[in-house]
Specification:
Two copies of one chain form a homodimer.
Chain A: H1 10-29, H2 32-37, H3 43-50, H4 53-78, H5 82-99, H6 101-118, H7 127-137, H8 148-166, H9 169-200
Helix pairs in contact in A: 1-4, 1-6, 4-5, 4-7, 5-6, 5-8, 5-9, 7-8, 8-9
Chain A binds a DNA duplex (30 and 30 nucleotides) through helix 3.
DNA sequence: TTTGTGACTTACCGTTCGGTAAGTTTCAAG
DNA sequence: CTTGAAACTTACCGAACGGTAAGTCACAAA
């Protein structure tokens, strides 16, 4: 049970609970009643705020997508060199998954589910983020003439390495034990940086 | 609706349908009635063959896990050089996702869901595959003294790059269009090979 | 010809699902 | 003091869920 902090209105708290539960159990696995119960409310309270489960889910995804874009904007303004921008962004994404693992999980679920769900709601939450990523790559020396597809291929592999690892913590700790996972967690960023450099120092 | 081919008994056909539907919609999203309906059967027929939904899901996962292990055994016997073994295995995994995309999707879902589901069924389908992968890495020149965690970190990033891309086709085609996706699909394996070499030519 | 057995079916069961309808309570503005 | 809206509640609804019980039917063995 979550406490409803005084400075945060119910709607925001519901959104936060929904993010956590959707990330953990998926759209079908998390019921609106269970989400509302986190705040000791009934599901009708949730309906009152969001209209429907589908709209609630949409807001959750939109929020995550916005955060991704914001992170990208921030990284590009914190650094001048495009290569450093990309490295900073990917490193931060890796860091984020430790503080907010729901983000990665939710995005992964959206990747898995958006085919069947798309028949109803056809919004592409990831679009601006991915398009932006491609632009950043195309500013890296040697990549100016790279096509959208070539740039995407390179960056998507790194994105995949990060995201996949981000959702694997429960499985990996169970299989390899806490100690090995801790060591893995330490080795990962170094290896990741190696991969980034190897990838972008060699244009297509 | 699927046709029940004459040489294939109902059980196998159900398993195949279940694999497809679980991959597409997840455990909660796919109902046993919907799976049975694919073969024009009732859900009770499915229960008759598998006992429960949970057991059916278990069999589906086990089958996929077995295929993964088989692919690894095959790759290690087709090649003598450990580096070539790994490259072959990862390349084949990339190829597999095109012919059987359900495999990647199902594994990703298991990665996402096994925390909540694990309270009930604690079988680690991926265990022997991942353990095997680590052993292969540790046979590569320069990696003999690498710890389990170091080897895992390196190979897991590549696994992530492949798996993440494998489940992204619907999203990527919708965002970037069919033409760009086709070009991306062409560029991907080359980039992947570059990443493999960069990763394993530099031990920790 | 009887007896079993595997492969199903129809008929249910209790539970949960998302959502609607119609309140009740709180509280601030007029 | 009244009005009205926001923020909820209880009481439902029909549909779908996983699963049980009790058959029906085909067919092979005894």
């Amino acid at each position: 049970m979550l406490e409803k902090s005084p400075n945060e209105d119910t709607r925001t708290a519901l959104l936060r609970a929904a993010t956590r539960l959707f990330a953990e159990k998926g759209f079908y696995g998390a019921s609106i009643a269970a989400i509302a119960r986190e705040l000791d409310l009934t599901k009708q309270a949730l309906i009152h705020h969001f209209g429907s489960k589908e709209r609630l889910y949409g807001e959750v995804l939109q929020q995550i997508a916005d955060e991704l874009v914001a992170a990208m904007v921030e990284a590009t303004s914190d650094q001048a060199d495009p290569m450093a921008q990309l490295e900073l962004l990917l490193t931060r994404m890796y860091d984020t998954h430790k503080t907010r693992p729901e983000q990665s999980r939710l995005l992964m679920r959206e990747l898995l589910d958006n085919r069947p769900r798309a028949e109803r709601a056809d919004t592409w939450y990831l679009k601006s983020f991915l398009k932006g990523l491609v632009v950043v790559v195309q500013r890296i020396p040697g990549w100016q003439s790279a096509s959208e597809a070539e740039a995407l291929a390179a960056v998507y592999q790194l994105l995949g390495a990060i995201s996949y690892y981000a959702i694997s913590e429960p499985t990996l700790t169970r299989i390899f034990g806490k100690a090995t996972y801790a060591e893995l967690d330490e080795a990962f960023p170094t290896r990741l940086r190696l991969l980034m450099r190897a990838s972008f120092e060699r244009p297509p």
